[in-house]
Amino acid sequence: MLKSFTLFNFNVKTFLILIFLALFIFSCHQEETIIQPETDAVPIVTKLNPVTQPDNWMILKPGTEFKIKWKPTKGISKIKIQLVKKFVPKYIISKSTPDDGEYDWRIPLDMVPSHHYRIELVATNRDYAASTSVEFEILDTASIHSGGF
Fold it and tell me: I need a labelling partner for 6 at 20 to 30 A (CA). Which of 24, 56, 78, 95 fits?
């Protein structure tokens, strides 16, 4: 049994409880860890401006010319344009073209019909995240008339 005596008007039990609480609170406190960037750290990535054409549900035909459109991104001079299907690159439309907002693309005659295509813009300097269009379709004339995909 602890004897009761006063220490700054506290008895021993109260004093021990306060010490225990203080130790518990300080043991739960975590110091902030500041991570210093390494010299070869990856820079902050900015997303390229959006693709504005093709639009959703647009149907394109192999052998025709189509104007791909996007909003140019400040600070980018060249971009790569590629065709992706279900977010997997399938065809490089242009390895390097000016980031001027337009590109005339002749759709190859042997393009596999699908309704899962997207246009993806990739900055050639890799400091920017890619921008991807909405889904559109590339269907040959026979598929359009027969209703098949």
Answer: 24
